[in-house]
Design brief:
heterodimer; A: mainly alpha; 14 helices; B: alpha/beta; four-stranded mixed β-sheet; 19 helices
């Protein structure tokens, strides 16, 4: 810090400039709206006119709102796809890591849904789920099964959305696992083999612990993303599904805000959801802390 | 992230300073529509610019399913477009919160357009005196009126040797079921019907039945939800029975999907609703003859139908009120512009004179286009939620109706259960309206 060269100082200035761009962007497009919406949550703001302060009324109403609970339940229900996706992705990654022929092709194939537009995918799956002409039911018909009208049925709409979400997320999770698997030192497995460990044991005692940080990352990001599920629902079941059985919290917030001029109330719900996500994430970090270990 | 995106919305970057660089009056026009409509509107705007050389219009096209969100985001961001499409159900809210400009003086003082020639009922949808809709100042002009008529597959009737329905005398509810049952057939003998009488979506087709049965969602004062009457329950039950009792429609769940539309297009349905916006597609793609009749009538003996509309409003913050109002007028009533839209077969003429000529023109299918005009003139109504501040109470009705359609619950039970919930939401909307007026 004492003797800094001219070049160093110039570079430092440029560095700040580069850092400034995202920071300013964050302040304008995230921080300001966030604070504004926190304020909005305490008003009867309709998105058009004045904002009158009404204290905690919105929050009290949130906890009395049956559709809030229903959409919250739906959102959490649809997170069932997360563990399914993780297990499938890990299995796939293990398979691809063994160098089976066509590995690269498979990687690409599984990754295509990840980079595709979620809206486009939703439209495709909407057709696939069509009870009459849909691909899914036509496939089932080969085995003599008469498939339901997936998206119009309270008991099948959520599983249908879960299947799609798992399929969409598989490639991303798989790729993360693949990277993690490849960074596990081969010598560990060799040592285990010498000690007489079978394949399952070396998976259980070496592979799983070694990919744990990645698993943790995937769980955290998936839960945050899962709590905000919206586009699929808006495209595939624009009314929130039969008996509102596929409406997610964000979908409900969106309806309240832009369908019913209740931006204040919607902000309150968004805040509750934000807190919910924050707490869940915090808990996960705490659990992870307890279980973490250092490699010497 | 979510919170941010709700607030940030999507601001449109169009200039609102009021002038272009070369000193022309600049106005923005935000709209949506089907591809043919968009083209027709673009051409109309071009003609407007030609006749108003000092005005430059910036077009902002928005995909239909995102339109409402974007418009509301623009309003929340205080960037109201100068001229924009909006839903008549929002007149009250937009007027109360100062989003719409009162354009009465421009409309009544216009030299180019004769307001008398635009459907009176259409203009009335955009009048509001602060208390009651339909009277007072003009806050917009109809882009169009959308009467929803009942269509039938003429070819199917002829093949089955059933006398064609009378275009002046509606079926009774029983007669309708009777005819529909005769037309529901298993043609390939696999034990499943593949030709059906009807395939109505309850969201768009219950209104005519309920209204003509003497029932309604809301009372005249707009303060009480009235679905818990025997007449209302009866009409909902009749609707559900189409599937469960009379088996004249495709399976339960399909009534809610697009499938029935596809079936109609394939000639598998005898009756299906037809709006003016369907005409171009039907003219091109239907391999059978179709025509229009009134909806079947309930207890009152008179048919009913709804008339939808989309409005063209002027933003209250516009810097060029006169040019903006002129454009709104032009889009709504310009003869040439109207003709272009009519030729694209996506809407009815807004001009009464043009509409009457059009209805009488037998070269345009379907033959009985007069039915559309009858709905406007005689028996069409606006949606129940048009009168109220928000539509949440009305949407609530459809949220939990599936068990009734599935036959797991009777309509009478349902309306009893749904009424208090809807009433609560309506009360909240009324409360919200009061607050917004302050």
């Amino acid at each position: 810090m004492k003797t800094t060269s001219k070049l160093y100082r110039t570079e430092q200035r440029y560095a700040y400039l580069f850092i400034a761009a995202p920071v300013i962007g964050f302040l304008i497009f995230a921080m300001v709206p966030l604070i504004y919406s926190i304020y909005g949550a305490f008003t009867n703001w309709d998105g058009l006119g004045s904002m009158d302060f009404i204290g905690l009324e919105n929050f009290i109403n949130v906890f009395k709102d049956e559709y809030f609970y229903k959409s919250m339940f739906n959102t959490i229900y649809m997170m069932l796809g997360i563990p399914i996706g993780i297990v499938l992705a890990l299995l796939l990654a293990l398979a691809l890591n063994r160098g089976i022929p066509g590995t690269n092709t498979f990687r690409v194939l599984y990754y295509i849904p990840v980079i595709s537009s979620i809206a486009a995918i939703s439209i495709l799956w909407q057709w696939a789920y069509n009870g009459d002409y849909g691909l899914v039911n036509q496939f089932l018909a080969i085995f003599g099964i008469e498939g339901p009208n997936w998206l119009q049925n309270t008991s099948t709409v959520k599983p249908a959305l879960i299947i799609m979400a798992v399929w969409k997320g598989l490639g991303y999770t798989m790729l993360l696992y693949l990277a993690a698997l490849q960074s596990v030192p081969k010598s560990f497995y060799e040592a285990a083999k010498l000690d007489g460990a079978n394949a399952f044991k070396s998976f259980w005692y070496i592979t799983l612990p070694m990919v744990k940080p990645v698993t943790f990352f995937i769980i955290v990001t998936n839960i945050i993303g899962g709590a905000q599920i919206f586009t699929e629902i808006n495209v595939m079941t624009p009314t929130g599904g039969p008996e509102y059985s596929s409406a997610s919290v964000v979908f409900y917030i969106w309806q309240k805000a832009f369908g019913n001029f209740q931006l204040g109330y919607a902000s309150a719900m968004a805040l509750v959801l934000g807190l919910f996500i924050f707490i869940i994430t915090l808990i996960q970090f705490k659990i992870n802390e307890k279980n973490s270990f250092e490699l010497d | 992230m979510i919170i941010g995106s709700i607030l940030a919305g999507c601001s449109n970057s169009s200039e609102t300073s009021g002038k272009t660089k070369d000193g022309k009056t600049a106005i923005t026009f935000m709209f949506r529509g089907q591809p043919q409509e968009l083209k027709a509107y673009e051409a109309t705007v071009k003609r407007y610019e030609k006749s108003h050389p000092d005005v430059k219009v910036t077009l902002v096209q928005v995909a239909p399913d995102q339109y409402d969100t974007k418009l509301k985001a623009a309003i929340a961001g205080k960037k109201i477009p100068d001229v924009f499409f909006y839903n008549p159900a929002q007149v009250k809210a937009y007027v109360n919160s100062g989003v719409l400009k009162d354009i009465t003086e421009y409309v009544e003082g216009s030299e180019n357009v004769n307001i008398e020639d635009i459907w009176e009922k259409g203009v009335a949808k955009y009048r509001f005196d602060g208390e009651t809709l339909g009277q007072g100042a003009i806050y917009g002009l109809p882009k169009d009126l959308g009467p929803f008529a009942l269509g039938y597959n003429k070819t199917m009737f002829e093949e089955a040797g059933i006398p064609l329905p009378d275009k002046d005398k509606p079926y009774t509810l029983d007669e309708f079921i009777n005819v529909a049952q005769q037309l529901t057939k298993d043609k390939d003998g696999d034990g499943k019907s593949d030709q059906f009488g009807a395939g109505f979506n309850i969201q768009w087709a219950l209104q005519p039945i309920a209204w003509s049965n003497g029932a309604d969602w809301i009372d005249e004062t707009g303060t009480k939800v009235t679905i818990d009457t025997p007449e209302f329950a009866e009409s909902v039950q009749w609707f559900a029975d189409q599937q469960n009792k009379y088996k004249i429609t495709p399976s339960i769940a399909e009534a809610q999907t697009l499938d029935t539309y596809q079936r109609w297009m394939k000639g598998e349905l005898a009756f299906f609703p037809v709006g003016p916006w369907d005409m171009a597609t039907y003219a091109e793609q239907l391999k059978f003859e179709y025509d229009l009749i009134p909806w079947p009538a309930g207890k009152t003996g008179k048919p009913a139908a709804w008339v939808g509309s989309l409005g063209i409003g002027v933003g209250a913050t516009t810097k060029n009120a006169e040019a903006a109002a002129e454009l709104a007028l032009y889009l709504s009533a310009d003869q040439e512009g109207n003709q272009a839209l009519v030729d694209a077969q996506v809407q009815l003429p807004n001009s009464v004179t043009v509409a009457e000529q059009w209805a009488a023109d037998t070269s345009i299918k379907p033959e009985n286009k007069q039915e559309f005009l009858d709905i406007i003139n005689d028996y069409g109504r606006g949606f129940p939620a048009e009168k109220t501040y928000t539509a949440e109470w009305y949407d609530e009705f459809y949220k939990n109706i599936q068990p009734v359609l599935d036959g797991k619950m009777t309509a009478a039970e349902y309306v009893k259960e749904a009424q208090p919930k809807m009433q609560k939401l309506l009360d909240a909307a009324i409360q919200q309206e009061k607050q917004a007026k302050k």
